[in-house]
């Protein structure tokens, strides 16, 4: 099958019979829901841009399985150039959508499962790698969106999966049949799952022998019986139901997360890619997290939009030449480009795994995501500083459109005379969206916790920092014998 267009993608989702709940009710047609629709548009963009000659270089790749042109989101990294192009694609899509476009989790999951399955087979003679390759072929040929699902709800964080009072706090195998397995559990914060055709599940932490039933990776279609999605609330989400383009800040695009319950879901054997090999769980988790951390170059693209919005807010206020404004914009740019530098660096320094798939350089990938847990917050602070208080006290679009009030609002909320008041309102609402509204889920808090919270990176940085080598360097210079 050829690459799908954005509208073909939306039509393909319409055919799925997913179980989605929002505000206590089952959503009859998710693709039509005004809160879900912008997030679907963001994924549809990843289809349309793959067909656009201006962006196809970053958006498509050649399948190493078939030699055919595929969406780059469904590609296994074959070189450092592929890793670099992923980072550039992330930034470009962040610029065009100003939100989380969701499809990257799947690509990072493919690459982690692919290379780990190869190594499990090498040790145990299992056939996970062949199974996964056939699955990937299906995904590439059908041009599907696959959500990578890792984060378990985790219950008591001081206890391992098998020590939990409630054994379902980590997703597990509850039954083994000749033709497959039955799984139960719940994955939290599932980015883009309602916009996905399939879900690829992985364990969430390293495990030991006692956790055997929790060491499981598999895929199922998102409308498989027993898969239940409860849509996550976002700050200001119901504004999307009011029909105001200005008040939502970003009327076209958005992201979403959901709580996903696996209520005794059957998985056929050919979709199981890890079952019980606990010693490989750490490798799988580390590789997924390693790939996903530089994927946060998406925030650099969104950061570009926010920096641009702050600069426009200053222009509209008549202060683009004020030295403190210029300095704040420089600071924002420096922070943003620092994230980009580390995302690129870990990609250029990537190397092949035993399967041939390329892996990023782990220390730099963790430094990259650690930057992301901090710098967008400072960029938001500076954007709010430049925007001024009006960003959070602005009247609604309904008031602005009201014949009674329009004259007042138009007159008194004007900045420089040459810029219509409505443009000033639109920019301030965009800044509000990215710093406090639905867009802030993707730009702000997701920057903290997505792809692992800061402590997860600090543990990796500590492990990879090679302190003994640094000490011996110092001893050598100071002429202290080893
Ligand atoms: Fe992709 Fe960024 Fe969204 Fe994660 S936060 S899914 S990397 S766009
Ligand atoms: Fe994320």
- Our count of helices gives 19
How many beta-strand segments?
14
Q: Order of strands side by side in the largest beta sheet?
A: 2-1-10-11-7-6
List cofactors, ions and other ligands: iron/sulfur cluster, fe (iii) ion
Low-confidence region ranges = none
Distance between the termini: 63 Å
Give the C-alpha Rg.
24 Å
Mean pLDDT: 97
Main sheet, how many strands, which sense, barrel?
6 strands, mixed
User: Judging by the overall fold, what is the CATH architecture of the domain at 294-478?
Assistant: Up-down Bundle
Helix fraction bin:
40-55%
Structural class: alpha+beta
**β content, as a range?**
5-15%
Molecular shape: globular
**What is the CATH C-level name of the domain at 294-478?**
Mainly Alpha
Q: Can you tell me the CATH superfamily of the domain at 294-478?
A: Butyryl-CoA Dehydrogenase, subunit A, domain 3
CATH-assigned fold name of the domain at 294-478: Butyryl-CoA Dehydrogenase, subunit A, domain 3
Description:
- There is one protein chain.
- Strands 2-1-10-11-7-6 form a 6-stranded mixed beta sheet, with no helix packed on it.
- It has a domain at 294-478: Butyryl-CoA Dehydrogenase, subunit A, domain 3 (Up-down Bundle).
- It is built from 19 helices and 14 strands.
- The longest helix is centred in the last third of the chain and has 26 residues, at 323-348.
- The chain has 482 residues and is of the alpha+beta class.
- The model has no long low-confidence stretch (mean pLDDT 97).
- Helices cover 49% and strands 13% of the residues.
- A hairpin with a 6-residue loop joins β3 and β4.
- The structure holds iron/sulfur cluster and fe (iii) ion.
- Iron/sulfur cluster is lined by residues 100-102, 104-105, 191, 255, 295-296, 298, 442, 446, 450.
């Amino acid at each position: 099958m050829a690459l799908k267009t954005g509208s073909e993608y939306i039509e393909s989702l319409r055919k799925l019979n997913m179980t989605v709940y929002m505000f206590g009710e089952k959503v009859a047609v998710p693709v039509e829901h005004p809160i879900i629709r912008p997030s679907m548009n963001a994924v549809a963009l990843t289809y349309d841009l793959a067909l656009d000659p201006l962006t196809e270089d970053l958006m498509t790749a050649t399948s190493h399985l078939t030699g055919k042109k595929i969406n780059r989101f469904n590609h296994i990294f074959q070189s450092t150039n592929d890793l670099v192009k992923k980072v550039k694609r992330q930034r470009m899509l962040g610029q065009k959508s100003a939100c989380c476009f969701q499809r990257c989790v799947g690509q990072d999951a493919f690459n982690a499962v692919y290379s780990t399955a190869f190594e499990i087979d090498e040790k145990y003679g299992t056939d996970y790698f062949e199974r996964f390759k056939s699955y990937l072929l299906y995904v590439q040929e059908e041009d599907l969106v696959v959500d990578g699902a890792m984060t378990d709800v985790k219950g008591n964080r001081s206890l391992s999966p098998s020590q939990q009072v409630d054994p379902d706090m980590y997703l597990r195998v509850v039954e083994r049949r000749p033709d497959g397995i039955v799984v139960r559990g719940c994955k939290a914060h599932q980015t883009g799952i309602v916009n996905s055709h399939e879900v690829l599940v992985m364990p969430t932490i390293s495990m030991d022998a006692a956790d055997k039933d929790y060491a499981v990776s598999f895929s199922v279609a998102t409308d498989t019986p027993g898969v239940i999605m409860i849509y996550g609330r976002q700050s200001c989400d119901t504004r999307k139901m009011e029909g105001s383009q200005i008040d939502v800040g970003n009327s076209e695009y958005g992201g979403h997360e959901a709580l996903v319950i696996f209520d005794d879901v059957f998985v056929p054997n050919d979709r199981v890619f890890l079952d019980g090999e606990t010693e490989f769980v750490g490798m799988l988790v580390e590789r997924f997290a390693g790939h996903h951390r530089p994927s946060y170059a998406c925030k650099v693209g969104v950061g570009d939009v926010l920096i641009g919005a702050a600069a426009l807010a200053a222009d509209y206020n008549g202060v683009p030449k004020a030295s403190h404004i210029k300095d704040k914009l420089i600071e924002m740019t420096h922070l943003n480009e620092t994230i980009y530098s580390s995302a690129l660096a870990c990609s250029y320094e990537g190397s092949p795994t035993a399967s041939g798939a390329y892996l990023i350089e782990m220390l730099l990938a963790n430094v990259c995501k650690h930057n992301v847990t901090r710098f967008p917050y400072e960029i938001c602070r500076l954007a709010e500083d430049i925007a001024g208080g009006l960003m959070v006290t602005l009247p609604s679009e309904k008031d602005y459109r009201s014949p009674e009030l329009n004259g007042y609002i138009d007159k008194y909320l004007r900045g420089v005379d040459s810029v219509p008041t409505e443009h000033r309102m639109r920019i301030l609402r965009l800044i509000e969206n990215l710093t406090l509204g639905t867009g802030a889920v993707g730009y702000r808090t997701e920057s903290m916790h997505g792809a692992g919270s800061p402590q997860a990176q600090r543990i990796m940085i500590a492990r990879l920092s090679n302190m003994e080598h640094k000490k011996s360097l110092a001893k050598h210079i100071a002429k202290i014998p080893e």
